[in-house]
Specification:
The protein contains eleven helices and seven strands. It is an alpha/beta fold. Helix 3 (87-97) links the parallel strand 4 (79-84) and strand 5.
């Protein structure tokens, strides 16, 4: 497993990127969390980035176990875990399987259940991944998920994702991950007891009604919500300042609930 660690004595925040993305996904959120006194760890999901490409299991549950393994390796928990898209499920699995190591989760554009696909969408996916244009197809789709603002380094990151997918085994990992059902993650939602914050862009193209999805998930998890006006599937990239402040406040409240889990930093208001 490849990961970065800012170090420090503050509460640990572990960021898990979405499917097919890299740990650089949290590059704009990281300095905001660091400024608030947090130790930020970002990982590459199994199959992508600098993490090994060959794995027996690419499920959200397996990725959740990887997150727990990193926290244990660093001997720095309990942690707050951020998970984008399918990795929101990984954050929930980590909390379920190691509740003593997870103080809270932030679910960013969470896809934690199997979403219905139209016939046109299914056909587009079939054609998109059918030939040598598949990397172009995926990175074009990735770029379409930013609906409000694109970071100054957007093109550079897009190229980095494309380069990574050209490496042996990376595209196979993506296709395998795309094929997996999220029914197992959906089944644990009602039993989740970890404090949670759901962050959703109002224009997230992965959902027919992002607001309704956020409300439904929040009700199941007894979670707080933040709707980011105009943002797409990566609200923490498009509106990093606003989302970062909300995450800092959520973690600050969580630290109040768990006063013995390390030294508390000063949180901005």
């Amino acid at each position: 497993m490849a990961f970065d660690d800012t170090g420090g004595a503050g509460p640990i925040v572990l960021g898990i990127p979405g499917m097919g993305d890299l740990r650089s996904e949290y590059r704009h959120l990281k300095p905001i969390l660091q400024q608030a006194g947090m130790r930020v760890v970002t990982m590459d999901v199994r199959g992508f980035g600098e993490t090994s490409s060959q794995w027996d299991d690419y499920s959200a549950r397996a990725v959740g176990r990887d997150a727990v393994a990193i926290i244990r390796h660093l001997d720095a928990g309990p942690a707050f875990i951020l998970g984008n898209s399918f990795a929101a499920g990984a954050a929930l699995w980590a909390a379920k399987e190691a509740p003593n190591l997870v103080n809270g989760v932030v679910l960013l554009g969470p896809i934690v259940r199997d979403l219905p696909l139209s016939t046109v969408q299914k056909l587009a996916l079939t054609i998109g991944f059918a030939g040598p244009w598949r990397i172009w197809f995926w990175t074009t789709y990735w770029a379409s998920l930013f609906t409000k603002l694109r970071a100054p380094d957007h093109t550079e990151v897009k190229r980095a994702i494309a380069r990574n997918l050209k490496e042996p085994g990376r595209m196979d990992a993506l296709l395998k991950m795309l094929s997996l059902s999220k029914a197992d993650t959906a089944a644990i939602l009602d039993d989740s007891a970890v404090p949670a914050l759901v962050v959703m862009g109002t224009n997230d193209p992965d959902f027919s009604d992002p607001g309704a999805e956020a409300e439904m998930l929040a009700a199941q998890l007894n979670a707080e919500t933040m709707m980011v006006e105009g943002a797409g599937h990566y609200p923490h990239v498009e509106m990093a300042d606003a989302v970062g402040r909300r995450i800092v406040a959520f973690i600050g409240a969580g630290r109040s609930r768990h006063p013995t889990s390390g030294a508390a930093p000063a949180y901005p208001r």
